[in-house]
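Input.
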Amino acid sequence: MEQETGMFTVAQTIGSVLCCKCGISMPPNAANMCTKCLRSEVDITEGLQRNVTIIRCPECDTYLQPPKTWIKAQLESKELLTFCVKRLKNLNKVRLVNAEFIWTEPHSKRIKVKLTVRKEVLNGAMLEQSYTVEYVVHDQMCEPCSRGQANPDQWVAAVQLRQHVSHRRTFFYLEQLILKHDAAKYAIRVTQMDQGVDFFFNNRSHAVKFVEYLGKVALIKSRSDKQLVSHDQKSNTYNYKHTFSVEISPICREDLICLPPKVANSLGNLGPLVICSKVSNSIALLDPFTLRQSYLDTEQYWRSSFKALLTSKQLVEYIVLDVEPVYSEVGVGGSKYVLADAQVARVSDFGKNDTIFNVRTHLGHLLNSGDYALGYDLYGANSNDMELEKYKGFVLPDVILVKKSYEEKHLKKRGKPRSWKLKSLNMEIDNTAKGGDNDEKMSSEYELFLRDLEENPDLRFNLSLYRNTEYQPSEMASTVGDGEELPSVPLDELLADLDIIEDEASSHE
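Output.
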């Protein structure tokens, strides 16, 4: 630019002066002293705190922000650094430039923070200086933890989760979702009941938040109630115990449903016989004869609150004699189906009769001649469903197939460990649960749940599965029986941090 205008400019040079104390050459400043001499003359950290005592709850790992606020923070986290800086007094006299942790032993009960501050000193000169603040950690339990330690039954809010069905498959699935999202981290106690689970909290807001979470992952309806525990007339304060009753819809995956006429009409004359293919905060209903699918949300379901015509406990095993596809493969709700005509016979009829059923099924992409399938036997079932009686002239099909069966292949692998495993909540078991065979029933239902996870990738999509360190690859047969592979969980879906978490938990205990 200067060459274009033809102007001549003189290059500027920065002069240097001698320090009035030590005489070394330095850039000029307002105090005419070098940084070393200026620091020896002025200490801008004078009057600032260098030792601070902080209070930490060892049970819930929170820190006390006076007067009554407890802050959750991990070691060397941003939250803890912010908390430590805010605990310092007279820090407004200087300008904070930087703050960072100095490593200390976790069990030393000491936290060191290096602070860099800046302040204007002699004749407007700016001086920057670093110093270390040592925080002494004193352990003291917060009020909820101390109350829980004194008496674990001193809960403030309880969530009673119930589902009126004959199995616990829904609770096994919800348990894994709760663990993955850490939804029950504030629960002081979890108790397994006969038809559900009870969660106890020290704070009503924690229970409300947990109920809101349940409403996002399951089809529920809830109501709340409270009971007066104590009342202080002088301070006019009341202590209540809050109870939230949460009921989960009795409709489960793979249930056969006869839709009420009003519901069927609202869904475009769907059904009336449909299969529940998926349950979350809505129900996915699949017509196995037309491959039409519709969804019912929470409000729509509880408005009619129908029940299942037949449940998965009533599934019957069939052998497939012949399969003939009717249409090509189609995608419905993220899953693929093929409508086909099949000939099936009940496995229990072998050697007794030659009854063969001709059925239409949505499992044409999975079934081949000689395979086994699980379905509902409407031919021999005695159903007294009021909704079914409203459809005059409706002819029930003999069989409705639901899924492919691998029971024979599972029997050959019984007793062999899996390459994966699941976490579980720390539950107390209610001893008043009815039935002497409760433990055996629970283990068999849990085994069926694990098989469902292996056979259905969509079911385990939102869950966390972990590698089993006790598993030996040589013990697992890659093929079984007729050479067809048994459904299993791919290794790339497994997580490997279960043992680390367990080790950390045991070290804290």
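The mean pLDDT is 84.
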